[in-house]
Write a structure and sequence with these properties.
By secondary structure, the chain is an alpha/beta fold. It contains 7 helices and 7 strands.
Length: about 200
Amino acid sequence: MVIIGIAGGTGSGKTTVVNKIINSFAAGEVTVIPQDSYYKDSSHIPPEERSKINFDEPAAIEWSLLEKHLDELRSGKAIEMPTYSYLTCTRQPETVHVEPREVIIIEGILVLGQPGLRKKMDVKVYVDADADDRLIRVISRDCVQRGRTPQMVIDRYQEVLKPMHDRYIEPSKRFADLILPQGGSNTVAIKLLTDYIESRLKK
């Protein structure tokens, strides 16, 4: 089993990189564990207060459960991965059954900043992209998927996303084994990464 951590700023192209890795392997060989599935439940907080939660700092994630699930997958056990709703900011009653696979990808903005989680990774990747490109992607995504207006997204970017990126995400780049500039469009770097994964699996 090879465990890969993929981090990078919001809107950097992590999902594109993950999808290109998945498409490079046979069906069923790759399992993806999104950091976002492990946001702490906020159902006990009044709905009007939930919009003020900072989802871009490490305290928002239940890291202990993520690490526990990763250990179980490595030992050959299946897990029940939690699900989370951005619309209600609550953990959902439904879970996703995840079987161990040859390649496990842990994907999320903060995953390289957690020492315990980093130690479990065989390969650490940071997906890099210009701030302007990331902002455009975030506006497009949040307006369509999360019901926000462009102005709401810009305000959140200035007040939360950029400060948290500078404080937690960008510094985690130094822990990466591989930095992918140009996000998911860097086909050469992605090919090098998938070739390395294949060589590890053969060993």
